[in-house]
Amino acid sequence: MAYEGYTTFTASQDEGVLTVTFDFGSVNVQGQEMLSDLNGLAMRLERDRDIKVVVFQSANPEIWVCHYDTNLLKDMSTEAVSREEAKLLDLQAVLERISKVPQATIAKLEGFARGGGHEFALACDMRFAARGKYKFMQMEVGMGILPCGGGASRMARQVGLGRALEIILSARDFDADEAEAYGTINKALEPDEIGEYVDTLAKRIAKFPAESINACKQMVYESIDKPIDEALKAEAYWLYQATSKTPAVKRFQIADDQGLEHDIENQRNWNKLVMDVQNIN
Amino acid sequence: MAYEGYTTFTASQDEGVLTVTFDFGSVNVQGQEMLSDLNGLAMRLERDRDIKVVVFQSANPEIWVCHYDTNLLKDMSTEAVSREEAKLLDLQAVLERISKVPQATIAKLEGFARGGGHEFALACDMRFAARGKYKFMQMEVGMGILPCGGGASRMARQVGLGRALEIILSARDFDADEAEAYGTINKALEPDEIGEYVDTLAKRIAKFPAESINACKQMVYESIDKPIDEALKAEAYWLYQATSKTPAVKRFQIADDQGLEHDIENQRNWNKLVMDVQNIN
Amino acid sequence: MAYEGYTTFTASQDEGVLTVTFDFGSVNVQGQEMLSDLNGLAMRLERDRDIKVVVFQSANPEIWVCHYDTNLLKDMSTEAVSREEAKLLDLQAVLERISKVPQATIAKLEGFARGGGHEFALACDMRFAARGKYKFMQMEVGMGILPCGGGASRMARQVGLGRALEIILSARDFDADEAEAYGTINKALEPDEIGEYVDTLAKRIAKFPAESINACKQMVYESIDKPIDEALKAEAYWLYQATSKTPAVKRFQIADDQGLEHDIENQRNWNKLVMDVQNIN
């Protein structure tokens, strides 16, 4: 399956990792071209079991992904709607679709991510940012709107209410260290470290079975939207979704045959074991 | 609209910022007078679009807001009720009303906040605390009750379950640095820095449109109470609530006219841009 | 009530603290014997109002609790089930029961906790880990399944989505400091400090009334599973559950008699007061 023909990014595949590199005009504006590309990308990813991880990065030395296109924003409706009439916005629909692709998604943030650009980062599974290069801002409150590409919804799923409210109400830039302290990103890294860190993580995850990656990911998202008793049942559902398609039983047989549970030396080396069994299919 | 006639605090207005200074007896006890004042304050704030931000501080050098009045607590009912019979308590009702006022609310914590006093802080949108002066405690478990001014409910919306449970079950004092590490406050600040930090933040937010402040705030609170698909629809609802009343379209037109999306120099200066457009109405 | 006859751990009672020490084979495997013991333990704890706190530790110098028994995992069903057919797994049911016992539960982590072992730690109310000795890993994704002992469900209730997804998708070891930074544990402590830290905390909580410990704990868990308006009503319900069985009214009478709310000196000494009233019943 070829990942070609996009206008706003290029995509290159290396074993199970797809690296998507935004490169669109001077600032990687998030407009209809990018939404169309992202929607097309998601459609392909949903049917692809060879790609296990997607890394989103930028060719632009200063901007990861820019905010939503002001050329679209200036024509927004100014008519209030009722709760029932409110429908998903294009940006929301595309980012939610990206958020739930079966692959693990990583935002590798080496430049600005503001407004819709930051909302896109929040729709990825994980976020790593380069010190000195990364800044994020949700400026919407100052423009007269709110972060409506999932940003208002996803912010409090990443950080506590108080910090979510400060980020969204202050409309100021946060750097990588503040982002790490507040919890919007997983980790802040040095600019010369982030490449290897993300690469190692992506390649590691890409060795794991596609169906267990998907089960893990969907379950974590389901979990916070359900009371614990329903969440636990969803775990059981996803367990059998996974075991029906992965070599789980064979791998546990191998682990059992090695006498894993009676041997402290084997227990010390779980990190090796989990990688060793990746060739058991 | 005058913010006068309160017994337990004074309120002074400086442009869009209302500073509420608790000054009631020797310890700022949280009794019927304070609840009555806070309820009256909320009622006014709900109809006021000129005030954008409320800062809660204390005139008492050691206590921000004291715990709930023991004179009321000693007369509590000792009769268990059914789930159906359980009704909102006065403290819960008032703090929930304060929590949802259309303004951004900031707790500027330069003294003790224990029991109901800390629950009041948790009902504010943001919390900043002075090192060496701030301490918080939820002592309820040791008194034979639980934090029932929203504290048990709001704690796990600020920090993870494990830390929420430790705070509530240990009934011990936490200082500003521990509060920051555990995430109950946004930031710990030096005593000589907190004034300017809060002032700068409050004045910044106060420049933004009242309706987008309200939309942002209500949406963040809604978000964690709803599954993601419903939360996203709520964002769309609040978007048009905002655009129908704010100069959003004009501001994005200005941004677009400046060629924002084709100019890296403009992108670098988003912080300036977001403040510059505040005079476009 | 005697806590005896267990195969996989011993339990010793010191006033209100029950210390459960896992000591089963070479690696403390989490198999049917341990589940059976834990289920039996929970059954007793549910009826015991003398034990207020349970500390879970290990006699094994390297392993706290091992992962789920591979001898059971290798025989897992490989048939997908529908959402309706999905039923609680044994590990889920037992850990959920442990999670909701009326006592405060503390995981004292001085060795590895991987897979189901870490899921057991997540089912405890609080977690403290020893630097240099503790490591945790959720390796399930690499084995072809997902953390299905409540781990996928409970992870995002402890940390934000991004870090929960990294932990579960990377299947790597995290040490005590990373665990603290990501928020899966309450605190990382030095190996020679953790004993006293946990002991002090456990003894402190054990002085408090059983019914208020239970009310606090159940309410925090309820809180994140309910919208705020329902959560607040649950607080009111638990308040009267507590006051109907604890000496709360008498204790607040004492506090009131001491003129607590008019005396700054008394306010400074809340930590002393909360312990002093523990003999008022």
From TrEMBL, chains A, B, C:
* Entry's Gene Ontology BP terms: fatty acid beta-oxidation
* A GO MF term: isomerase activity
Its domain of life? Answer: Bacteria
Spell out the coiled coil positions from the record.
Answer: none
- UniProt cross-references to SUPFAM superfamilies, sorted A to Z: ClpP/crotonase (SSF52096)
Q: Which InterPro entries match?
A: ClpP/crotonase-like_dom_sf, Enoyl-CoA_hyd/isom_CS, Enoyl-CoA_hydra/iso
EC number annotated for this UniProt entry: 4.2.1.17
Its keywords, alphabetically, are: Isomerase, Lyase
The text of the family note is: Belongs to the enoyl-CoA hydratase/isomerase family.
Q: What is this protein called?
A: Putative enoyl-CoA hydratase echA8
| Species | Grimontia celer
Q: Which gene encodes it?
A: echA8_3
